[in-house]
Amino acid sequence: MSELIRPGLAWIEGDFQSGIEIEVEGEYIVNVRRTDRHPIEPEVAMLPGFVNAHSHAFQRGLRGRGEVFTNPTGDFWSWREAMYELVETLTPETAHEHSLRAFQDMRAGGITSVGEFHYIHHSDAGFDFALDEAVLAAAHDADIRIVLLHACYLTGGFDKPLAGAQSRFDGVDFATWWKAFDRVQSACKGNKQSMGVVIHSLRAVPIDIAAELRAEAMRRGLVVHLHLEEQPAEIEDCQAAHGCTPMRLVLDRLRPGPDMTAVHCTHTDPREMAEYAATGAHVCLCPLTEANLGDGIADVTGMCASGASICLGTDSNARISMIEEMRWCEYGQRLRDGRRGACVDRDGRIDRPLLDMTTIAGAASLGLNAGLIASGRLADFARVDLTVPELQGIAPEFLATAIITGM
After folding, report:
1. Same domain, yes or no, for 198 and 333?
2. pTM for this model (two decimals)
3. Which residues contact 74 (CB under 8 A, 6 or more apart)?
4. Burial of 274 (0-12, 13-18, 19+ CB in 10 A)
5. Is the Cβ–Cβ distance between 135 and 148 less than 8 Å?
6. Which of 320, 313, 385 is nearest to 46 (CA)?
7. 211 touches 253 (CB < 8 A)
8. Same domain (yes/no): 402, 300
9. In this structure, is residue 376 part of a structural domain?
């Protein structure tokens, strides 16, 4: 039996349009058509559900503990130290608790799908991979579509062993990690849970093993994500170890393509970015986290000029809002370049490119048939309440920009 949805406005082909009826059967949109019938929800604007392409849900437990904070003894700690302190205390129960809060925040903010970049595998009981299913259970409880991006993490740096709390991340070796991957994949519930492969970073996975992971993921038809060139130190260490940048290693050894997403690329050389973008691979930016950690502002202008497919993520989840991620993706670039911004289409609009990042591009990055209000797509929607004060007096043609810049 089908369900009919008639909002006041619906985001169709890059514009909010009235007089739209959406027919849904089960999980899918089966028809989108024009209608003269009155809206069922006249005070609602319907968007495709936002797709959060990069999240570390457990880091929701760090909220309020900024780049530098004072611990109970009065000492100043960095965010990184706080993160490792949290990791050392995680149990399956607390991992579930932090993840559930993050996923519930996402749902409240119109996020219907999340790529959970998951690397906290073990409890303090040993190499038990006990935290993997806790995150899946939290996603199920929050009723969010999840692609659990299961991270391989083997070293603490280029040619360095894991140390301290990093033992919670340990994938052990290629065979053990894939065995754990298969076990977690068998635990996925229903049609809203699936898996992808993570090479945590090239400092955490030796390049020969990373190439093996990439080849096996391609054989299985799985998406591959990895952190890349978030900080200058990573690039310097890679050049010392391999004589080239991490992006150069990706280009030469990992066969990038539409099933790969590099997260951050804050300090990537423009020529290497253009070469990467030409493969159809994605870049995921996390503007709020990159700002919070002081990592820098990526060259979004250059990425757009090279034709890169850009999606967005909430990363550390200190603030969960795809609207703010869009806004600061645009505003950060204005601050960086002193221009009108990078995310401008041929008509001079910012709303279409930014909304594409949080819908179409995010879905493609995760291998999901979502991100559009169109026949055959997943029926995942974000509903905007048109009665809120922030949206009063806004004409439909300016509504999308008003949502991004003013809500």
Report:
1. yes
2. 0.96
3. none
4. middle
5. yes
6. 385
7. yes
8. no
9. no
